[in-house]
Predict the structure.
Amino acid sequence: MLLCAITDRKRANQSLLSLVEGWSRGGVDFIQLREKDLDAIALRSLAAEIMEKIDRSRTRLLVNISTPEAAALALAAGADGVHLAGKPTRGAASRVRQVFRPRVPIISVPCHSLEDVDVAHEEEVDLMLFSPVFQKVSGEKVSGDEMSAPQGLEVLRLACARAQGIPVLALGGVTAGNASDCVAVGATGIAAIRLFAGDDWRRL
């Protein structure tokens, strides 16, 4: 099961750098740096600090960006790739790859419908974060990459089939208790904010 921890330093009960170090030691595959209140300089600096804390043989850092051109920030920080926020659009992934040349970036995108999955497949992205699968946990903020209505396991199953081999991570209301249900219908793994803010993820 692939694990993707999405950062929210304001929610964490310890420093973000301590968190990411623990995630990496514990086997988290991807860390998505999602700190929307930071300007480009601060975000690049934080990304570079995270790269120094993680085990780069096992964990990859993806920087959340809003436009393909912003991939330059992730590149400058030494990150492994980007999470291209917003609805998947044709041509966006290729523009990210142009920014990263000659390096080959990992490109993650959010998908909220089967049509989004089709576009992401055409773009040959590396990861799809399909959301929201479940009802959000009480008190949980809904990510800007999520719609509000839960889509359920059956739609997740269809999304995984439509992805045609591209890894799909289930996002939205995912807990240590329901993560295995996502994998059972075809998800390659899970992504979450709240789950990774505590220690429950270690039960996966």
Notes: Residues 2-203 form a domain with the TIM Barrel fold (CATH 3.20.20.70). The beta strands are 2-6, 30-33, 60-65, 81-84, 106-111, 127-130, 168-170, 189-192. The radius of gyration is 16 Å. The mean pLDDT is 93.
